[in-house]
Design brief:
The structure is a single chain. By secondary structure, the protein is mainly β. It has helices at residues 34-44, 125-139, and strands at 5-15, 52-64, 74-81, 93-113, 157-159, 165-167, 173-174, 177-183, 191-197, 202-203, 207-209. The protein has one domain (5-168): Alpha-Beta Plaits (2-Layer Sandwich). Helices cover 12% and strands 38% of the residues. The longest helix is centred in the middle third of the chain and has 15 residues, at 125-139. It is globular, with a radius of gyration of 18 Å.
Length: 211
Amino acid sequence: MSKYRVEMEIAGPFAMWSRPDTGATPTSYPVPTWSAVKGIFESIVFFRDGRAWFRPVKVEICKPRGAVCGEVTFQRYTNNYRGPLRASGKSNFQFNSLILSDVCYRLYGIVENGSGNELKNGDNPCHALQAMFQRRTKKGQCYKTPSLGWNEFVPSYWGEFRSSTEVDKDITINMVSVLKRTFESPVAGQYNPEFVQKENAVIRQGVFCYD
């Protein structure tokens, strides 16, 4: 594995990682998608020119240390829609969704070289992005406030790993198929969704790997 590793913990009362096959009644995956984790990393820091970028590697579902959990909690949530598909003459309408509650994740990633140049001392965008990410997570700084899927789901905590949490190894879920990424390229890519399926779409002992 590359030495340019990044990691962080994020938790909150609500989360929504939308399954594209659930249509007008959105339902959440148990874990964030590859693209969602990349977006969380980029909410801390990113390079606009793409000379270095974050590649999510895995996510761990966590719980308070010593707690008995072993399950992912879903709940109904009602939201107001004000987008272009609303009925003519109406300002908005409400729709129901199925979201997650009381979530905590540990996110892992690798900083990849997108510059096309050989990395060397004094000109190493991967090391620079990694160092900026680590400084900001330690200080609680960010480019914009991270979210747990939908923007209104603001985390109660994000930053370095906490000793008060641990991986919930009692969780194993076969998701059958899960969206990995939405665009064909990590930087300025075209829309071309990719899915992980069958034996690769399984959360094993609280851990889901994207590769």
